[in-house]
Write a structure and sequence with these properties.
Length: 426
């Protein structure tokens, strides 16, 4: 008979430590450094090896096998040289603790994996998924074959038994499946990041035209005044007035461009305490040119509150929503922006008096590529919004009535820390 329980337990151990833990890391620890994630991965893989050795698969002939080498191979390939060394030490040290002939064969095979992963001729992180799967499969086959050869020599057995064959297949399959799932996890998080970036570029290019329009006005005013000042008989008082107006117009143009650039330029990921009042005002300043073009009046009622997050992402979220609202009011309308504290949470309300949505449209909001704007739309704006709110541990509620308007409610956890108190005192 064959030990199904032991087998399932080993597979579960690998799935937990090699798949679930990295997945949890990717989803929850956004701000942690690369180094930190790497070490958590190494520790998790070490635990996988220790647990695998502690709960081996017991074959009827009295042989014990487990999937420790799968963990060592995958950990070494993904974690690089430090991981390879740590995992080798863990495997050899923990196995020799139990003694027996198996400790010698473990030492030989484990050292072989150490050499294979360190001197792997490919840069594992840079090759395609197909190559990664092939490298994983190859390493697993080399390990299994060497293990068989080593046991034959050590135990003086010439026949390859059933357990060896099962172990061979099991090791191969689990290596390939785990590498494949790990790659899917990496790819998904990579695609999510790319979509948010791509959508931002789209918004940036849309806003650019309204902004350049808005900058041209002050320039025209300044030009007009400068032309008038060419007249030599202008009284000194008038000259002063003209100069003052010109200067303030130049400042206004400068402000518009500066605000736009803080949003447009890529930012390094940095999470900080955000002053909602400042953030909202900046977003409104950026969107105002677009509102002016559509004759949309913006009304605000904003309180000073603090949340934790990344300024650029929050800006992107606010701009995507307000841009949609303004686009829903192509010829005039009103946009209300309010922030209040509600049940210990921050509530941002963004309300338009635009075309609104049907129940069907509302239910599809946030679906990738869902747009009713044809070539003008990307259908990625609301998706990015939802992603960003999720990242900030918030919630989004949308209510809409056809031909009457739409209301966006964003709930975000408030930050009430000493840091905030310090900022307030300043
Ligand atoms: P896009 O703006 O590129 O179309 P979005 O993801 O930003 O993509 O929006 C998806 C769709 O949701 C829009 O095409 C529109 O039909 C609808 N929508 C979003 N916001 C509003 C709004 N404030 N009023 C009416 N419809 C909206
Ligand atoms: Mg949009």
């Amino acid at each position: 008979m064959y030990d199904i329980e032991g087998l399932l337990l080993n597979v579960l151990i690998l799935a937990f430590f090699l798949l679930f833990v990295p997945l949890l890391l990717k989803r929850n620890i956004k701000s942690s450094s690369k180094n930190q994630t790497k070490w958590i991965f190494i520790v998790s893989t070490s635990l996988a090896i220790i647990t695998c050795i502690s709960f081996p698969i017991n074959y009827s002939e009295g042989f014990y096998y487990d999937l420790r080498f799968v963990a060592q191979i995958i950990g070494g390939l993904y974690g690089g040289v430090p991981a390879s060394i740590v995992l080798w030490v863990v495997t050899v040290a923990y196995r020799s603790f139990f003694g027996g002939l198996g400790a010698y064969s473990t030492f030989i095979i484990s050292t072989l994996i150490l050499i294979l992963t360190i001197f792997c001729p490919f840069k594992f992180h840079q090759v395609s998924i197909k190559k990664k799967l092939m490298i994983g499969a190859l390493f697993s086959i080399i390990t299994s074959v060497s293990l068989i050869v080593v046991t034959i020599i050590m135990f003086d057995l010439v026949v390859i038994n059933f357990a060896d064959v099962v172990h061979f297949i099991l090791q191969l399959c689990s290596s390939v499946v785990i590498i494949y799932i790990l790659e899917i996890i990496r790819e998904t998080s990579f695609i999510n990041k790319r979509i948010i970036k791509a959508e931002k570029m789209e918004v940036v290019s849309h806003l650019a035209s309204s902004i350049s329009h808005e900058v041209r006005n002050p320039l025209a005013v300044v030009r007009g005044f400068l032309q008038m000042m060419q007249q030599t008989d202008l009284p000194i008082e008038k000259r002063k007035d003209f100069l003052n107006i010109s200067l303030s117009e130049i400042d206004r143009a400068n402000d518009i461009i500066r605000n736009y650039l803080t949003f447009a330029k890529p930012s390094p990921e940095n999470i900080e305490v955000l002053n909602i009042k400042e953030e909202m005002q900046r977003a409104i300043e950026i969107i105002t040119p677009l509102a002016n073009m559509n004759c949309v009046e913006i009304q605000t009622n904003i309180t000073q509150l603090f949340v934790i997050g990344e300024s650029q992402l929050l800006q992107q979220c606010l701009l995507n929503i307000t841009k949609n609202c303004i686009e829903a009011m192509p010829d005039s309308g009103k946009l209300f922006v309010k922030t209040i504290e509600k049940n210990g949470e921050l509530l941002i309300e963004i309300i338009d008096t635009g075309k609104g949505m049907t129940q069907e449209q509302l239910s599809r909001l946030g679906e990738p590529y869902y747009t009713t704007k044809g070539r003008e739309g990307t259908g990625l704006g609301m998706m990015a919004v939802m992603k960003i709110i999720e990242l900030m541990n918030g919630r989004l509620h949308v209510k809409s009535k056809l031909n009457q308007g739409t209301k966006f409610e964003i709930y975000l956890p408030l930050e009430v820390s000493e840091e905030v108190a310090a900022t307030l005192e300043k």
